[in-house]
Amino acid sequence: MTSVDVRPETPARPTPIPSSQRYRVVWRWHFYAGLFVAPVLLVLAVTGAIYLFKEPFEEWHYSDVRSLSAPVTAARPLSEQIAAAKLARPGAGVMSVIPPTAPDRTTRVIMQGADTGPWAQGVSVYVDPSSARVVGQVDDSTTFMRVVRTIHGELMSGTVGDRIVEIAACWALILIATGSYLWWTSRRRRPARSGRARLRRLHAWTGVGAGVAVVFLVLSGLPWSGVWGDNLQKLQEKTGSTYPNADDFPHTSTLSKDLSTNPDAKVPWAAELLPVPESEGHAGHTTAHGVLQPGALPVEQALAAARPVLRDCPPAECDVKVLLPADAKGVYTIVTDNRRDPAAAQTLHVDQYSGKVLVSYGWQEYGIMAKAVEQGIAMHEGRRYGTANLLVMLGACLALITLVVTGVWMWWKRRPQGRVGAPARTTSRRATYGVIAIMAVLGVLFPLAGVTMVVALLLDWLVLRRVPALARLTG
């Protein structure tokens, strides 16, 4: 009798998803994302590269009102200089005062401009400290760099522009991730010698080489955005990482989203939600914003009272900003703003009647997340580590410009006539669902990108595939 070798059946293994199928899904997402957000990313990169040079440009452009021909040996009191600025702009409230940082510099008095809403720009009145004579005025809402910043932050379209910028920035991260995958899976292919192949290599190696810098550029800019930035601040509030505990500071009353309505004279980002105290004793009646109350100390006395508490900060690197009390209960807010190192910043609240320093806080009181955001902002603007920092951020902007230009160029060269020329859809559902699952995680981390992902999927499934003409056009 012949024995029969009976072996247990091994369970069938699932058929692996061919890498080409995943490649096609990722490439299709990469293609459409790049095609749709390329114009916005190009605008962000160009304006960002220009804004890196804000400080030297404005130092040169406004040297006639910011610098004096000879050093000042005896300065007039700040209150007299403010009075001269108010005569130059009758009826306008004083938003803040920035004393000279050197003997040959003017005093900058920021007056209320035409707009009065949050983040409204003021008018800077420059005063000669030796004679209290106004040497010039600059409307901060119309400066070249302010226009560049408005385009960079909101495309000059308010809230709608801010959301579009945030969507494009979030998709830039997804483009870097999907592009890195495409490069990794195709890196062993024999390089072609065609013009499009050379463009593809330039596109790929630019993304790989500058990807980390571009990712940092995007992440460090997102705290300014509307949705993602607000969610970050809410997270910081819940974790106590935005500002010191209010219990640590007596005499606090209200929270202020921004202690100054002028972006050029605001407190540090990490301190915007800090408790604001009230002056302990107040006299007189409430008057217009920036108009001192009867019995209030002059600005120079309030600043002198704060000097012993202010930490050392080199005048060449620091601006001392004095925000006047908003009303009879308000306080002087004095901010030292180090243009390079956020750790040197400090914020003080001084009683406008007694000169008592009610609150003093700085880097040591900030939470971990707030410190990370402050350092990120300084590096994002290219000022944290001097020229080296500026060149790295400029390189990231130029790399982003290169990626956009080469990507669009490649598409233009390969597109079939009368069609978009998108990569063909995959036939593998498993590959599609797997990539969508990964994209969903990114969509949760970046909500506006997630919303646009859902819109894109619904558009593809409900419209593009069901309309024959659109199906042929989009592939």
Can you walk me through this structure?
With 475 residues, the chain is α+β, with helices and mostly antiparallel strands. It has two domains: 32-52 and 148-224 and 386-474, no CATH class; 70-129 and 243-366, no CATH class. It is 48% helix and 12% strand. The chain has 14 helices and ten strands. It has helices at 19-51, 54-61, 63-66, 78-88, 144-154, 158-186, 195-221, 227-239, 299-306, 368-380, 386-414, 429-445, 447-464, 468-474, and strands at residues 94-98, 107-111, 123-128, 133-139, 252-255, 275-277, 318-323, 331-338, 346-351, 357-362. The strands form two sheets. The chain has an eight-stranded antiparallel β-sheet with strand order 4-3-2-1-7-8-9-10. Strands 5-6 form a two-stranded antiparallel ribbon. A hairpin with an 8-residue loop joins strand 1 (94-98) and strand 2 (107-111). Helix 6 packs across helix 7 (195-221) and helix 7 (195-221) packs across helix 10 (368-380). The N and C termini lie far apart (64 Å).
What helical percentage do the residues reach?
40-55%
- Main beta sheet, described? 8 strands, antiparallel
Q: Which outline best applies?
A: elongated
- First CA to last CA: what distance? 64 Å
Question: So how many helices?
Answer: 14
How would you classify the helix and strand content by structural class?
alpha+beta
Strand order of the largest sheet: 4-3-2-1-7-8-9-10
Q: Return residue spans where pLDDT drops below 50 for at least 5 consecutive residues.
A: 1-6, 10-18, 245-263, 285-289
Number of β-strand runs: 10
Elements, N to C (H/E): HHHHEEEEHHHHEEHEEEEHHHHH
Query: In percent terms, what proportion of residues is strand?
Result: 5-15%
Taken together, the total number of domains comes to: 2
The gyration radius over C-alpha positions equals 28 Å
Q: Kindly state the mean pLDDT as a whole number?
A: 81
